[in-house]
Each structure stands twice: as structure tokens, then as C-alpha cells.
Amino acid sequence: MKTLSRDLSWLRFNARVLQEAQTDTVPLLERLKFLAIFSSNLDEFFKVRVATLRRLTKLKKKTRAKLGESPKRQLKEVLAEVARQQEEFGATFRGQLLPELNRHHIHLLTEAELTDKQREWTARYFEKNVRDLLSPVALDDTLHHLFLKDQAVYLTFFLSQPNAATSKAKNKHADERVLIMELPTKRHGGRFVRLPDEGEERYVLFLDDVIRVGAAGLFPAYQQVEVNAVKLSRDAELDIEEEVSGDLMEKIRSSLAKRTTGFPARMLFDPQMPKEVLRAIKQKTGITDEELVEGSRYHNFRDFFGFPNFGEADFHYPPRPALPHPTLPRTGSLLAAIGQRDHLLHPPYQSFDYVTRLLREAAADPRVSGISITLYRVASKSAVVKALLKAAKNGKQVTVVVELKARFDEESNLFWADKLKRAGAHVVFTPPELKVHSKLLLITRREDDETTRRYGYFSTGNFNESTSELYTDHGLFTADERLTRESAAVFEYLRDQATVPELHQLLVAPFGLRSGLCALIDYEIKQAKKGHEAYIILKVNAVEDEGMIAKLYEASHAGVRVELIVRGIGRLVPGQPGFSENISQRGLVDRFLEHSRVYVFGHGGEEKVYVSSADWMTRNLDRRVEVAFPILDESLRAEVRHLLDFQRNDNVKARDFENAFIPAVEGEKPLRAQEATYAWLKGQKRRQRK
């Protein structure tokens, strides 16, 4: 079966991010942000994927053989593609964005480009604002081990040619010193320093270069001070269960039991760095040549998220304030509105505040007896958790399923879990082998007639106010007993994993999502074989699972039309004669991160539409609790399809499987899905009045 490598497919996605930085119709400072996103993505890729591949290469040969593909060969291919993209990244920054900044009278200077006047100003700035933040450590015999923090930029100082009055050394090497320190970006308040304007010309300097200007004053006993930069990415310690399972998992777990915690995955270094400095760092850290990657003079381009904005509107995307919802009240009871009908929410086009408002209302409502919720990632100052804390203090039975294995959010989730426990909430931690990725909220209320009613919220996105402004998601508010009863059964399963619930509406992993999807695909295959219209439309972040890919190939071969809208990993190879000629694939990268998952099946003219938290990856289908929920309301089902059609017909930001932009055909108007979505939702209230 023909598939694309998972890692190379992911790198293709990051190449699409880089394309946005290269697109001149994207506002200038937004292009810089896409470079920052590309850099941040690549850091995570090294921490997770490259680190995992390196660990797999260290397994015994017999164990490695059972993995199928050779991790050594995979690693070689991946690093070659990373090197190619890094070269393109540098060319984009130096050849496109820096000249464009200059054209708009913005100059990102290096230390060597400073005029005498600017150098004097920078030296004064260093003495007043930076010098006291520095604490270099000498890499000499008194230091036995050097620990470099993950993702932090360090500056190295190579001191040579001591002044005659201070030197007592009898040989060259004794005259040289190597020191290192973390770049104090956070304590300084950012990575960039604005210099005084000169007329309409504006100047910016890296904090690194401010320190280079002041470095001679730090070490007056030496005539020459060379300053360079390094950055280390450490193994994120992704559980190897993400890769394999079963008997092989036991062998690998045993093989890796003694692996080094936080093993270095990559150390970027300035190619101009003196050999003496690199040798000293390797000696003190234990980093080997295998982890060394030649970088540039500056690291951590994710810091460009904090590049000065200069207050010019044209440098940024136009404002897109979150829209009011057409059927949910701006004031008054949300529970009452949900009790009357279902409502779909579409962050970030519509405000996530409806979710936090609902939680605050439930916390204060004396008739609400219980609140259950799954938390995967929450905001740092979470309004969601604050509402849950209030509910617990008000005597509600609050059940919170907290995922402790949410990558890079473990510490934050532990913090909130502890606060919730102390407030009296029942906090559920799932077993290590089961990650809860579903996004569910269930509120239980005693109605005026003394009956008990449940109110639910099912979503593709996290209960996180911060990411809700950046990620496109769908959320369903409903009191439909067919859905809320099954949501309650899922929460019961999460409490003890004792009994797999019997479900008729929800498709829930790990016990029913894969089989449910296969059954829906089989139905389309049967329809196609009968000569009837048969189609599948999938919008997901990733299509990686080989079993599901094989099923889609089978559907294509039977004559089912399959349309894929894949943001990230897409291992399926579309358009190939004999097995995938009826499959097309496109991806969308734009202002907002596409995050919603939608599954559409023709189903013999009675179209079924599911919205889900799950991608088509093995881990989502088999090793996570995921929920796909049907849109039962006919008008809302049409709404999801209408928004999905914008994605299917985008001819501005959509790319094909080979990452080529999909152009408009002759006579076709430009259609940019995210802009069209905002405009359509903005007019929704007006259309309903008519």
C-alpha cells in the first residue's frame, strides 16, 4: 500500500506555513509571525519526532527490525528535508522580508551596521537596562557539568589577548577563557530593542547585539571578546506508545528503561563560533556531534512574535472582532436558550465567551446540581477553571477529567487539578495508557417541574479562551437527550473504565470510533457498487492511520468520491490510478489555524455529518478517548456543510497534495474560505430576521 512518510508529510505542512511568510499579499509583520510559527513548529518537531527517531535507532537490531521502516533511514531523510527547509527559511528572511522591512523604513540592524551615534546610544542602553541582567559562567576546571535549558538561547563569550598588565599566563591557551550565559529575554521584556528614529527611518536591534556592543566593558582585562549563540532542544520524552504498542511495546519499554532524561535532540550553533568554544560546550554538556546542527548568528525566531508593531494597521491583518451569535442571547439565560433548540458555535469567528458564560450561569444557578467536563489544555488564567471552582464552592457536584499527558501542558494541568481538588471538585486522572482528548461539557439541572434535564456542549476545540481566538473550531450546545444521555455514559466510563457504554449516536474511541467509521465507509462502498451516488468528505488535521487509509483506497477503487481537506499530516497519496484515482486532497493555511474535524458521508441521500475532536491517526482511534458527534438538527447540518463548502472551493489559500496553490479556474471569482466564513456568519443574524 502506497503511503507517504508521516514525518515527511508533517514537514510538508510546515513548508505550507513557510509559504505564508513568502506570500506578498500577507501583511508584512504577519509574514514575520509565520516565520516565528515555522520556527516554533520545527523546535517541537525536533523535541518530539526527531528525538523519538533517535531513541528508536538506539534499540537492538532485532527489535528495530520489527518496527518495519528503518529509523536510521527515516532520520536521514528527515534531517535532509529539514536542512533544505532551513536554507529556504534563511533565504526568505534575508532575501524577502528584510528588504521589504527596509522598503517600509524599518531596519533590523546588526552590531556591525550601527553608526557611531547608534553605537553610543546602544552602549548607554546596555549599561542602564541590560548589564545587571547578565551572569556569565566560566567553562573551566571548576565547572564539572553544564546544563542547558530546553529552548533557551545562550550567548558564549570567547576571551583572548589579555592586556599585558593583567596577564600572568605563560601559554596561549591559558590566555583564553570561555564563558556562557542564558540570554535574558524574559527579564529584559523581549528580544528586540528599538533605537531612536531618524526622520522616517526606524531601527531595531536584537538584544544579542546590544550585549555584543557592551561585551568589551564586561571583560576589560581582555582585548578581544567574541560573542556567539547556541540553542538546545531537548527530547520531549514523548511516550513511545505514540509509535508502537502490544508485545513490541514491552520490549521497547524494557530497552529504554534507562534512557537519559531530557536527552538533547538538537543543538543549534553559530557557524562563526570558535572551535575552542564548541569543544568546551561539548565537553561540559556531553553533547555529541550527532546532535550538533549548524544554525545562524541568531536563534529562536519564535521571538519574532514579539517584534515591534510600529502601530501601523497595514502591517497586520484587518481586525476581525468576534461576532455575536445569531440565536444565543447576549444577556439572560443560556441554559433556557439551549433548552429550546440546538446552537452551533464557531470560534474564533464567534465569541468563546458563550462557553464561559454558560459555566458561570451553571455555577450560580441553584437548580444546577452537577457539572462534568474534560480538560485537555486550558488558558494560563483560565476563566473556565475559575467558573468550575466557583461551582464547587457553591456546592455543585463538579467532576473534572484532567489530562496529565497533554504534551507541554502537563505542569499547568497539574496546577489546576490541585486547585480544583482543594475546592472540592472530583478530579479524575485516566490511566497512563488512555489519553482523554475529547472536549465534553455536561450540566445537570432540576427543572421547574422537578424533572432532571441535561445540557451539553460538544466541541472540536479545547476549553481555552486564548487558543479560541486563533483556532477555528465548531461547538454544539444541545439539550437533546439522545446526545446528552450518551455524554453522561462517556463520563461514567471515564470515571472507572469498568464498562464500555452502549452508544447509538456518538462514535467514541477507543472502543467505537474506528469500527463506526469503517461501517460508514462500507455503506458508501455498497452504494457505489449499486451504481448510486456515494461520497465522503473529510476535514481533519491528519490522515495517518494505515488501516483507515486502506479503507479509503478500497472506497476509491469501488467508485466512492473521496474529498480530503487535511491541514497537517497526510500519508494517503491521492489521484493514483488503480487505488486512489477517486480521491482528491487539499490543505488550507491562513490567518487562523484550522482545527475543526468534520466527517461527511452521503449515506444514500440521507447525508450524515459528524463533528469530532479526532484526527484519523492510530493514536486518536485506538489509544485516546475521542468523540465524534452527529449534527442531528437539519438546519445546523446545512450550516456545517455550507461552511465546509467554503473550504472545498477555496482558490486563494488552498494547496494541493504537492503544496502548489490551487488557482481559480477561468471566470471563477476568488474565494478565501476564512474571509467568506466570517462574512457569512456576520450576515447570519440579518438573514434570520428576514
TrEMBL record:
This is Polyphosphate kinase. Belongs to the polyphosphate kinase 1 (PPK1) family. Signal peptide: none annotated. It comes from the Bacteria. The active site is at H437 (phosphohistidine intermediate). Mg(2+) binds at R377, R407. Residues 117-307 form the Polyphosphate kinase middle domain. PANTHER family: POLYPHOSPHATE KINASE. Residues 4-108 form the Polyphosphate kinase N-terminal domain. It catalyses: [phosphate](n) + ATP = [phosphate](n+1) + ADP. Keywords: ATP-binding, Kinase, Magnesium, Metal-binding, Nucleotide-binding, Phosphoprotein, Transferase. One of its GO terms (molecular function) is polyphosphate kinase activity. It is an enzyme of class 2 (transferase). It holds the Pfam family PP_kinase. Its cofactor is Mg(2+). Its EC number is 2.7.4.1. Catalyzes the reversible transfer of the terminal phosphate of ATP to form a long-chain polyphosphate (polyP). The gene is ppk1. Residues 334-497, 506-659 form the Polyphosphate kinase C-terminal domain. An intermediate of this reaction is the autophosphorylated ppk in which a phosphate is covalently linked to a histidine residue through a N-P bond. ATP binds at N41, Y471, R567, H595.
